[in-house]
Design brief:
5-stranded mixed sheet; globular; 3-stranded mixed sheet; 29% strand; binds glutamine; 5 helices
């Protein structure tokens, strides 16, 4: 199995290294036609506005949308999740293009600036029941987005109740920042 990792900006090296630890080959994707050589894709964390500008420059959006539309599995981490959301708020002036496909609204930089980044132990029951792993997962929220709402076909694997000192916006709970988009 070969997994494509969008390699425009951000933590693509770390994702390829994580795949390697699992015995899976990850290949860097920078051009639209390279998507034809992979059956699944990871869009890593980073800075989604910069990543979107680079994706526009390399004319990647149509091929990425087509990839999602074909129902191929796509994983989005942080900025990658923002790419996959159908709707984003808190964008820089002028907005940014999205790939879309994941029926949710995402809020960029929900928790504030880089210095407000934090880690939290999340309860993820499906890890134990479906994967035979531990029931918790250490979530790392680096200038993280929050998922404000999801459509009826989205399975939420974990959520994180926002402590009152971290609430900058009017939502009492938000969902885990990392979402795996399965074929649908
Ligand atoms: N860790 C991350 O990927 C942060 C995402 C970043 N705040 C953005 O808007 O793109």
């Amino acid at each position: 199995m070969v997994v494509g990792v969008l390699a425009l900006q951000g933590s693509f090296n770390e994702h390829i290294a994580a795949l390697k630890r699992l015995g899976v080959k990850g290949v860097e994707i920078r051009k639209p036609d390279q998507l034809q050589n992979v059956s699944s894709l990871i869009i890593p964390g980073g800075e989604s506005t910069t990543m979107a500008r680079l994706a526009e420059y390399h004319n990647l959006f149509p091929a990425l949308r087509e990839f999602v539309k074909m129902g191929k599995p796509v994983w989005g981490t942080c900025a990658g999740l923002i790419f996959l959301a159908n709707k984003a708020v808190g964008q820089k002036l002028g907005g940014q293009e999205l790939v879309g496909g994941l029926d949710c609204t995402v809020h960029r930089n929900f928790f504030g600036s880089q210095i407000q980044s934090f880690e939290a132990e999340l309860s993820v029951p499906a890890l134990a029941s479906q994967e035979g792993g531990p029931e918790t997962f250490r979530g790392v929220f680096i200038r993280a987005p929050a998922v404000l709402d999801v459509g009826p076909d989205v399975d939420v694997l974990a959520d994180y109740p926002v402590p009152s000192n971290k609430v900058l916006y009017s939502s009492s709970t938000v969902e885990i920042q990392e979402v795996c988009l399965m074929p649908f």
